[in-house]
Specification:
The protein has helices spanning 32-44, 60-68, 100-114, 133-145, 159-168, 189-196, 225-229, 235-255, 259-268, 283-290, 299-308, 321-324, and strands spanning 3-5, 12-14, 16-19, 49-53, 78-83, 85-87, 93-96, 119-124, 149-155, 173-177, 199-203, 274-278. The chain has 332 residues and is α/β, with parallel strands linked by helices. The chain has one domain (3-330): TIM Barrel, CATH 3.20.20. Helix 4 packs parallel to helix 5. This is Aryl-alcohol dehydrogenase-like predicted oxidoreductase.
Length: 332
């Protein structure tokens, strides 16, 4: 698999990474054995970056990943962990905590659940509005000095926060949503990251399945994260967005690839400093996604995609107002 550098100071990794969230939370039930088999298949195919969060399934996802990495497989993986999102026993959300003491507490529990001596990339899941980013990054920098963390990343922050954080300690990469229908980072965040030498780890490259080519109107209203919190999956917005996907399908068919492969390849074509996370929960979907590794889109292909799916064409925001109000990356 082709590899890329995560920023000036980050590690080198395969250009496709695996996001594990759906194996534990938010997208409905998942099969544990199939999840483990999918992680192993990804590693065998050359995937290195594995992304988890301590709040995915309230620790379940880290335990799952720890099981998958027992033995020699640890040496093949770059483990990225997000922290700070607070949950309640019913699975609800209770804000964020990125105080220095909390940072070190979360890290201690993550290391235990993962069964690791260090975390390769450690990042707050969101900006805590009550804690200066300098304090949060400073606490992770202490963990770097102590050998518990190798690199510091961020997630869903804006350009100003990137600058402030990077002034405290080099930031390897910014994890942020980026896809053919989620292009907000092009309005300043991407440019700032490149100026500072910070890589981009793009998640949501298939917009949570919406532009995978496999979603249908019959799935509207499913009782998972998408139906509850993402306006793009709701009502007339969904019908509009699925019509856009059909236009993309025509381009994919002309290239002899799937819609999902085209969507992933589009993200990779936006720059050598971008790594794409795919959220496959099953080996079948993983194999399809891995096919994007060999897809090279030319200028004519990209121009055609820009014509059928220009920036801003999607209906509905990526999150509802409740999840957007404190989202630092949206404050530009």
């Amino acid at each position: 698999m082709q590899t890329r550098q995560l920023g000036r100071t980050g590690p080198r990794t395969a250009q496709l990474g695996l996001g594990l969230m759906g194996m534990s939370d938010l997208y409905g039930p998942a099969d544990r054995a199939e999840s483990l088999a999918t992680i192993h298949a990804a590693l065998e195919a050359g995937v290195t970056l594995l992304d988890t969060g301590d709040f995915y399934g309230m620790g379940h996802n880290e335990i799952l990943l720890g099981e998958a990495l027992r033995g020699q497989k640890r040496e093949q993986a770059l483990v990225s962990v997000k922290f700070g999102a607070l949950r309640d026993p019913a699975g609800g959300w209770s804000g964020y905590d990125a105080r220095p003491a909390a940072v070190k507490n979360f890290a201690a529990y993550s290391l235990q659940r993962l069964g690791l001596e260090h975390i390769d990339i450690y990042r707050p899941a969101r900006l805590d509005p009550n804690v200066p980013i300098e304090d949060t990054v400073g606490a992770i920098a202490d963990l770097v000095k102590q050998g518990y963390v190798q690199h510091i990343g961020l997630s869903e922050v804006g350009a100003d926060t990137l600058r402030r954080a990077h002034a405290v300690h080099p930031i390897s990469d910014l994890q942020i949503e980026y896809s053919m229908i989620s292009r907000g980072i092009e309005n300043g965040v991407l440019q700032t990251a490149r100026e500072l030498g910070i890589g981009i780890t793009a998640y949501g490259v298939l917009s949570r399945g919406l532009i995978s080519g496999h979603w249908s109107a019959q799935r509207a209203g499913e009782a998972d994260f998408r139906g509850q919190y993402s306006p793009r999956f709701q009502g007339e917005n969904l019908a509009h967005n699925l019509a856009l996907v059909e236009r993309v399908r025509q381009v994919a068919d002309s290239l002899g690839i799937s819609v999902a492969q085209l969507a992933i390849a589009w993200v990779l074509a936006q720059g050598q400093d971008i790594v794409a996370l795919v959220g496959a929960r099953r080996r079948q979907r993983l194999q399809e996604a891995l096919g994007a590794d060999q897809v090279v889109l030319g200028a004519a292909d990209l121009a055609r995609l820009e014509e059928v799916l220009p920036a801003g064409a999607a209906a509905g925001e990526r999150y509802n107002a409740y999840l957007t109000v404190d989202l630092d990356s949206e404050k530009q």
